[in-house]
Amino acid sequence: MEIAKIAQKAWAKTPLWKRAELLHKAAAILKEHKSPIADCLVKEIAKPAKDSVTEVVRSGDLISYCAEEGVRILGQGTFLVSDSFPGNERTKYCLTSKIPLGVVLAIPPFNYPVNLAVSKIAPALIAGNSLVLKPPTQGAVSCLHMVHCFHLAGFPKGLISCVTGKGSEIGDFLTMHPGVNCISFTGGDTGISISKKAGMIPLQMELGGKDACIVLEDADLDLAAANIVKGGLSYSGQRCTAVKIVLVMESVADALMEKVNAKVAKLTVGPPEDNCDITPVVSESSANFIEGLVMDAKEKGATFCQPYKREGNLIWPLLLDNVRPDMRIAWEEPFGPVLPVVRIGSVEEGIHHCNASNFGLQGCIFTKDINKAMIISDAMETGTVQINSAPARGPDHFPFQGIKDSGIGSQGITNSINMMVKVKSTVINLPSPSYTMG
Ligand SMILES: NC(=O)C1=CN([C@@H]2O[C@H](COP(=O)(O)OP(=O)(O)OC[C@H]3O[C@@H](n4cnc5c(N)ncnc54)[C@H](OP(=O)(O)O)[C@@H]3O)[C@@H](O)[C@H]2O)C=CC1
Ligand SMILES: O=C(O)[C@H](O)COP(=O)(O)O
Description:
Layout: H1 2-11, H2 16-32, H3 34-45, H4 49-74, E1 78-81, E2 92-100, E3 103-107, H5 115-126, E4 130-133, H6 140-153, E5 160-162, H7 167-175, E6 182-186, H8 190-197, E7 203-206, E8 211-215, H9 221-233, E9 243-249, H10 250-265, H11 284-299, E10 303-304, E11 310-311, E12 314-315, E13 318-321, E14 338-344, H12 347-356, E15 359-360, E16 362-366, H13 370-379, E17 384-387, E18 400-401, E19 403-404, E20 407-408, E21 410-411, H14 413-419, E22 421-429
Parallel strand pairs: 3-4, 3-6, 4-5, 6-7, 8-9, 8-16, 9-14, 13-14, 16-17
Antiparallel strand pairs: 1-2, 2-22, 7-20, 10-13, 11-12, 15-19, 18-21
NADPH dihydro-nicotinamide-adenine-dinucleotide phosphate binds near residues 111, 171, 186, 402 and 407.
């Protein structure tokens, strides 16, 4: 913490163009090393090989975009004059600029250890902050290699410190440390308790989700089915933005389920090295939790579209039809390849289910009627609503935010940079009013 504080003071005096130049360099080095880092992701978190490479490349692009965006938005401040407020003459000129916060504590989750670390590191650095990064325990090796790319690019010593260790053991020390000036966290409910313990500092929390997919009678069912399978089951459902419940109008439910099940049958299941679609979930406790949700739904009468199959941490993809509100899976996020389907009699029923959730990350609607889609989007209490596509965080410059238990603050490149600065004003007071004549 002390080193981070010292390094930040010097970094804040580094010209903006130079900070951007170093970030571009780090992005290029990261992309050059995409294969070994992706290999780590495959081994550590069982992400399919192709998706692991995509995560590293996307992270490089994010760093470069952040450098460009930072140069644009941090180079600008505001200039205000006093006579626009009643009772004032033009005697005061107010100059505001965006200045760094200090030390940013970044805590990403296991499912995107590289990308969700970089999405905190790059905005913090371009804005003149230093970082203490606590990587997820599963994903720590990938994170260390990624941070090494920043060091190879020439970032000064101490500017980015990577502190490994179990969150349950070192988390409180870090999050309650008086030297921390901002916390950017992505993960589960832990974020809620961190918010309660943290001091009076800016917090960016991206937490869980129960993203609903509402399918209307006039939807393109092929498009909806493709998005349900990709959105719900890619990386075995271990994405905060995964489709986590399908709410389909009864009249098209059979037709939709036929298409979805046909696609599920084609998914490959196995090791991440073989680039299988469905790979083992991250831990035994996670697999046990998912199994608990499945068994609860079985006892309460859900229809199993596929047989339930599990070998160790590998769970075969499973659609549960005719899910009812008394089943846990209707509300809890499995973070696994199991997707509940609720048949609804009206759009209002779908919106009501979506809004009754304690989460409010994203949601999606499938319909050909844009007017209807807009009304439903306005009624859904989520940070983002996607029309005719599955929920997603990217592209990474789009705003990304959750409401209710899904988080506080907004991410996305521009919002993250703006969140990692504070506003500083300098007011020039003139002895007498001065009005510009040209
Ligand atoms: N909204 C979003 O953008 C995203 C949300 N998520 C949500 O995250 C959850 C799954 O991810 P998972 O990694 O298991 O989430 P966790 O909340 O368990 O962990 C997230 C990070 O917090 C750390 N951590 C754990 N305990 C503490 C603590 N007491 N103090 C500080 N840090 C701590 C973890 O370290 P360690 O690994 O050592 O335990 C990890 O680095 C799901 O609920 C999912 O929805 C996931 C990704 C994105
Ligand atoms: O951690 C997550 O799950 C992400 O923030 C989701 O990102 P994605 O929509 O790009 O997969």
